[in-house]
């Protein structure tokens, strides 16, 4: 595949060009990421608009993507910039984050965007919020990316069963992109990313965009996995050109999900001593990565970087075209991964890339053994499986307490027991049985129930690095010790039902009020 100019779409709104390009195996799709600032009347906003106009005229790009409150900091709402760029005739991918909105607000916004013709989305859970008005804002995370995909899929089918005006609402027509990171140092981190990918695909993902990294084997790894698991999703490789400041932040782990290893950072620092502060070297490295992605068979590339000019993008694309015929020779140059980092597949010594079969799995750490887990799993089988010895007695007892004078006492007794064992938050809609008996309401900063976010680093939570292990690393280790890791690929855990808050999850389960009880 080669990157072609298809003529300027200026003054002609070429709707769905991005989607058509993704579906065309002979076309290499190019997008560019724009990051709106806090103001819509600033010099930076004018610069972004001018850059978008040049991209629209260029003809080699199919769309630009626009971030929503990147880094967890409040910024201009993305549809404002998106509508202006659409008038230039360029398709727009708007990031749709779940961190700041509850489910009703999400549905309202989606209906508005569909009306406005903003229909290409990148569905993400989003970065944890940072300091705002009068301090740190409340992290919402009412839904996560898997939930949002499920919601949008229903809306695309015209399924508005939860509304009173379902007969008056037409179906939407969103195209759902999702983010994915193969750049995880630990086996547990990486494999849970792949488990969540299965759930995203099942709930309506239309295409993937990778996170930021600079290792050819890692970029090929996900292609192998998609093929091996029959996940027919177009994928765009991330080609990010950082400046020196952003390189340092990524290296320090202060930009979640973006990886610059020690060795690459030392090279970037050395390049930065030149008269252009290493900008040309970083552009050439990006051009090599872009050529490798084309050679590997990616559907396209997602370009980005702070302060870039149109001339920089043109230079990058021209260099990539020159590199493409010999992309395999460049593979040894793009090997910036941790020396102790996990690869899913064995290394092919001839090509420097991967080969089948997958790498042997490492032994489960001793820390994965948990008496708490084994006790909880046994009690779950006995009391909450229909054929369990305690199922019927406990069901009768709980239902007898329900709506009696002892109703509140049962709720408190349950909460105390589960708080001591699991730090229970008394949500009334328990997911312990699906998540290896660790509680996402207390154990995950984003309350995720269908898999991890992309922000963990070296096994630590994005929000509490060095202090709190990622919930899903713990889950993977527990499930692996029992040979149950495949369980995280299947199923769908619905979002928390807040109508059940501070009620007995035992009663809710036996009455069929919670998500687990409804399935029985």
Question: How is the topology of this model organized?
Answer:
Layout lengths: L16 H7 L5 E6 L8 H16 L4 E4 L11 H9 L4 E7 L5 H14 L3 E5 L20 H12 L18 E6 L6 H16 L4 E4 L3 E2 H13 L6 E6 L3 H8 L10 H10 L7 H18 L3 E5 L5 H14 L3 H4 L4 E2 L8 E3 L6 E5 L12 H14 L6 H11 L5 H16 L17 H4 L27 H11 L23 H6 L4 H4 L2
Parallel strand pairs: 1-2, 1-9, 2-3, 3-4, 4-5, 5-6, 6-8, 8-9
Antiparallel strand pairs: 7-10, 11-12
Helix pairs in contact: 6-17, 7-10, 8-9, 10-11
Summarize this entry quickly:
The protein has 520 residues and is of the alpha/beta class. The protein is 40% helix and 11% strand. It has helices at 17-23, 43-58, 78-86, 103-116, 145-156, 187-202, 216-228, 244-251, 262-271, 279-296, 310-323, 327-330, 371-384, 391-401, 407-422, 440-443, 471-481, 505-510, 515-518; strands spanning 29-34, 63-66, 91-97, 120-124, 175-180, 207-210, 214-215, 235-240, 300-304, 335-336, 345-347, 354-358.
Task: Please give a structural write-up.
The protein has helices at 17-23, 43-58, 78-86, 103-116, 145-156, 187-202, 216-228, 244-251, 262-271, 279-296, 310-323, 327-330, 371-384, 391-401, 407-422, 440-443, 471-481, 505-510, 515-518, and strands spanning 29-34, 63-66, 91-97, 120-124, 175-180, 207-210, 214-215, 235-240, 300-304, 335-336, 345-347, 354-358. Helix 2 (43-58) links the parallel strand 1 (29-34) and strand 2 (63-66). It has two domains: 17-358, Alpha-Beta Barrel (TIM Barrel), CATH 3.20.20; 366-518, no CATH class. Helix 7 runs parallel beside helix 10 (279-296) and helix 8 (244-251) packs antiparallel against helix 9 (262-271). By secondary structure, it is of the alpha/beta class. 40% of the residues lie in helices and 11% in strands. It is built from 19 helices and twelve strands.
């Amino acid at each position: 595949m080669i990157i072609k100019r298809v003529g300027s779409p200026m003054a002609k709104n070429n709707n769905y060009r991005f989607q058509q390009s993704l579906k065309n195996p002979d076309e290499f799709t190019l997008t560019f990421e724009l990051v709106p600032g806090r103001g819509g009347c600033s010099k930076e906003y004018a610069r972004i608009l001018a850059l978008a106009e040049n991209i629209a005229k260029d003809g080699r790009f199919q769309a630009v993507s626009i971030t929503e409150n990147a880094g967890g900091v409040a910024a201009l709402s993305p549809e404002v910039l998106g509508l202006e760029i659409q008038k230039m005739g360029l398709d727009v991918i708007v990031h749709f984050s779940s961190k700041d909105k509850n489910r009703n607000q999400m549905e309202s916004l989606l209906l508005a965007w569909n009306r406005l013709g903003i229909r290409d989305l990148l569905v993400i859970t989003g970065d944890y919020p940072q300091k705002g008005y009068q301090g740190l804002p409340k992290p919402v995370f009412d839904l996560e990316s898997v939930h949002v995909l499920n919601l949008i899929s229903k809306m695309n089918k015209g399924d508005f069963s939860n509304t009173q005006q379902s007969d008056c609402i037409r179906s939407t027509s969103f195209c759902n992109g999702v983010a994915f990171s193969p750049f995880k140092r630990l086996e547990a981190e990486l494999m849970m990313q792949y488990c969540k990918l299965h759930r995203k695909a099942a709930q309506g993902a239309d295409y993937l965009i990778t996170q930021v990294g600079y290792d050819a084997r890692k970029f090929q790894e996900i292609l192998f996995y998609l093929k091996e698991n029959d996940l027919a999703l177009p994928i765009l490789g991330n080609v990010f050109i950082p400046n020196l400041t952003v390189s340092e932040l990524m290296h320090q782990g202060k930009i979640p999900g973006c990886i610059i290893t020690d060795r690459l950072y030392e090279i970037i620092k050395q390049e930065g001593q030149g008269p252009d502060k290493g900008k040309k070297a970083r552009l050439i490295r990006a051009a090599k990565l872009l050529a490798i992605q084309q050679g590997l068979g990616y559907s396209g590339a997602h370009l980005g970087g702070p302060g870039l000019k149109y001339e920089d993008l043109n230079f990058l694309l021209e260099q990539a075209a020159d590199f493409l015929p010999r992309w395999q020779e460049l593979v040894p140059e793009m090997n910036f991964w941790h020396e102790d980092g996990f690869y899913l597949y064995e290394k092919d010594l001839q090509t420097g890339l991967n080969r089948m079969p997958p790498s042997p799995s490492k032994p489960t750490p001793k820390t994965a053994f948990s008496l708490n887990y084994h006790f909880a799993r046994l009690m779950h089988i006995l009391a909450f499986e229909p054929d369990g010895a305690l199922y019927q007695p406990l069901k009768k007892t709980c239902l007898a307490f329900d709506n009696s004078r002892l109703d509140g006492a049962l709720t408190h007794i349950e909460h105390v027991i589960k708080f001591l064992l699991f730090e229970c938050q008394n949500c009334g809609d328990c997911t312990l049985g699906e998540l290896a008996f660790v509680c996402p309401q207390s154990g995950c900063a984003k309350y995720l129930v269908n898999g991890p976010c992309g922000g963990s680093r070296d096994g630590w939570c994005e929000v509490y690095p060095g202090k709190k292990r990622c919930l899903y690393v713990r889950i993977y280790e527990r499930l692996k010790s029992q040979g149950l890791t495949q369980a995280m690929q299947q199923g769908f855990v619905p979002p928390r039902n807040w109508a059940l808050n501070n009620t007995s999850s035992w009663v809710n389960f036996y009455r069929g009020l919670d998500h687990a009880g409804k399935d029985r």
